[in-house]
Amino acid sequence: MTIQATSRSSQGSRVVVFAVLMGLCQSCLAQQSSADTQAQRVAVEAEMKTAIQEVQRIVNQPVNQLIRTPEMQVSTYKPGWFHDGASKPDFNNVDVRRTREATYDKQQYITSDLNPGVVFIGSEVEFNSMTKYFYTDRTLPKKKLSEQEMLEINRLYRVIGRCEQQMAILQKG
User: Fold this and answer.
1) Closest Cα partner for 78 from 125, 47, 115, 106?
2) Rounded distance, CA 5 to CA 97, Å?
3) Tens of pLDDT along 105-137?
4) CA distance 11 to 9
5) Among residues 111, 104, 125, 114, which one has the least CA distance to residue 68?
6) Where are the domains of the chain?
7) DSSP string, 123-145
């Protein structure tokens, strides 16, 4: 009987040891999963930040400036170039080629009350409600973008949209 008790005691000890090991493994897996999620979050944030910086670089290119002379026929925009605020683009669907406004094309020279003594060639300037979200200096007009630049912005917008979706999933998990 003593032998059986020892055997049962030994089995009980094994069960306890097994349960402790299982708990440790689950704890390790949970920590690993948390670390994996954090690493994914960091990678997605870095990818999104890079895409945003590239959009900003393209959208905020400088426009050629000329010194204003008395003989120039100049249209002046007031107050400033842009009203406050900006709509956040639907990064997954918007096509910035379709939201471009070329109203400045009609004037040879344009300026703003923010830029005394300086003019810009109207045909080199554009406004785009779906890139305004990324304007970093609203005291200057924005350069008219090429087809290739707009396609690149569309591509970068899809990256941003995908990253936003992945971040939402990672936040839930």
Assistant:
1) 115
2) 82
3) 999 999 999 999 999 999 999 999 999 999 999
4) 5
5) 111
6) 42-172
7) GGEEEETTTGGG-S-TTS-EEPP
